[in-house]
Amino acid sequence: MKFGKRLIEVLILLAALCLIAPAAQAANVSIGGGIGFKPDYEGSEDYEAVPVPFANVNIDNGMFVRLVGLNLRANLIPSKMWNLGPVYNYRAERDDVDNSAVDDMKQVSDANELGVFGGFNIDNWFLSLEFLADMGNAHEGWYSKLKGGYNWVINKSWVLSMGAFTTYADEDYMQTYFGVSRQDAARSGLDRYNADSGIKDVGIDLGLNWMITESWSTRGIFQYTQLVGDADDGSPVVDEGSEGQLFGAVLVVYTF
Fold this sequence. Notes:
By secondary structure, this protein is α+β, with helices and mostly antiparallel strands. The chain has helices spanning 2-20, 100-103, 171-178, 182-188, 236-239; strands at 26-39, 47-59, 64-68, 71-75, 82-91, 111-122, 125-134, 142-153, 158-169, 198-211, 216-227, 244-255. A hairpin with a 2-residue loop joins strand 3 and strand 4.
């Protein structure tokens, strides 16, 4: 229910931005969505289907507002090379998961994460760095992600995006999602485990965009994440699941 409520709120916000953008001389507005799959908790080997909304408002001067899933960001710099602006991410709660031991642990509520991102794009190469912190009491921590890659324009209909990333998380985040407290050990039967701050993952991103017509396109998204450091299978939470995490989605997008 919380996921659905947050999805509706974000879609309403994007709808309002899409209505406002043309008045600001937007170059184009794209909106769509599709279905994806993701682990039912970070470190799980069990997967669930999720809706993946998409919207992108590009202004002529390089500014943009972009939604992918429940990650929303806006570039506030009027530049087609440089990006800087706020970013919001919704992280679903860890509750009612398939793994019985992890499910017996204390519920982790959904997180509203807010922060800032910045980066640049030069000759289809891109690099970005973002910092986000929990605005509530889910994990009460922060993390930072560094990502870089290349957009290969195969022809006017096909674009392949290739990227790599790594994420650093503080102790509060790591202990919340990968640690096992004394109370959780008693509830679940898992060994106690203290997860310290550090690099929690490395991974790759792939995206393929196919322009079917001038207005309609379809997009495939694939991501592989390898949990490392104190988030690897040394964590009883991850040992119950998998260090390798997959995300994929297929979207249909209309541009007007």
